[in-house]
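Input for the complex:
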Amino acid sequence: MATFKDEGVVLRTMKLGEADRIVTFVTPEHGKVRAVAKGIRKARSKFAGRLEPMTHVSMMCWKGRELDVVTQVEVIDHFRGIREDLDRMPAAFTMLEAVDHIVVERQPADGVFRALTGGLRTLSEGTGPALLGAFLLRLLALEGVGPVVDSCASCGADGPLVAFDEHVGGFLCRSCRSGRPVAPDTVALVRQILGGQLRAALTAPPSRATAEVERLATAAIEYHLDRRLRSAHLAPDGR
Amino acid sequence: MTARPDIPSRTKTALPADHAVFAGPIQALVDELSRLPGVGPKSAQRIAFHLLEVPKEEAVRLAAAIGEVKDRIRLCERCFNVAENELCTICADSRRDQTVVCVVEDPRDIVAVERTREFHGTYHVLGGALNPIEGIGPEQLRVRDLLERLSDHNIVEVILCTNPNLEGEATAMYLARLLAPLGIKVTRIASGLPVGGDLEYADELTLGRALLGRREVAG
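Predicted:
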């Protein structure tokens, strides 16, 4: 049987039979990989602590027809900063869920993989209020469906952009406006995120713009995926 | 039973009528049995034919046991463990320490903790763990019932005994934050290496926690 090696981030796991789990990864070379981790639910499993969701690993698998089988795993990063902080978890879960819906099995996903590991590392090191919004927008841009941000998505006018409508695909000018109204700061922040000034955007202090970017990015990705992101609408801290 | 929509080869649906190879009642039994977790069509067939061969009393005893479990077992009103009466045997036992509550995800976890014989308090079954990706938030768990219980009784300690995985840890952190204002002692079960395990194969997270949670050894 053929084996392959790749890096991966565990997106989610699902119980299988008595002691196994199906683990879903996103990998740079093989896209989404679904593989069986045998015996992982037993206390002495050598996999158990390594194949938790949100773990960056280097792994080896048997290639199967429908499901692969995990043979070896080594951890690259556990993202402990996220794991041990209830306030950072919702953003991390939303990132994993969005990636799970976007990547396709056996189709290289290098860009998405790098965006996810980068996003999780940043989140693990400290929260940026614009991080989740920025991540989702980057994901859309990688998919080739990034929102139009430089001019009105409907008429192309440069004019002041005052609204965002995910159905039209970007920001809109005063005469074309539909969807949700947005502040000028929000437009500027989105331009920063998609225009190569990500680092600057991530250090922005929490503001109305960062909250608005997160909301419109969530709406845009949900429109693109044609489904709700469940983790984006649950507040596990009970607020 | 957990549905596994992603694995077509394992989906448990009865064969279409024209595939029925056995006389009606046997086929019906095979179909029912193959709905059980871990029982495929072949095992279902074997069990069905075994039941056909055993003395009638034995088969009827099995049928009666299934009926009885469905009729008589319900959830304990206090801790949501499986119970025969209003209270489960643990909640009803006056020798148990009612001031300590061990919070678990599932009634089966109670069995696991009971087998240790190290715990003499009572339990609270949440009915799962927080899992945003599956859409399970605090409202889907018995968190409110736990809070009500804690305000009513003389409880001095809550042990968070959820699974040491991402969802279980998130649940424990959430509960710890929720319970902090109540002034009750909240503890989390330790996590470390399994007895009979091997350091060489221990993962970094587990071994790291085992080191953090080390204890002084009396000489």
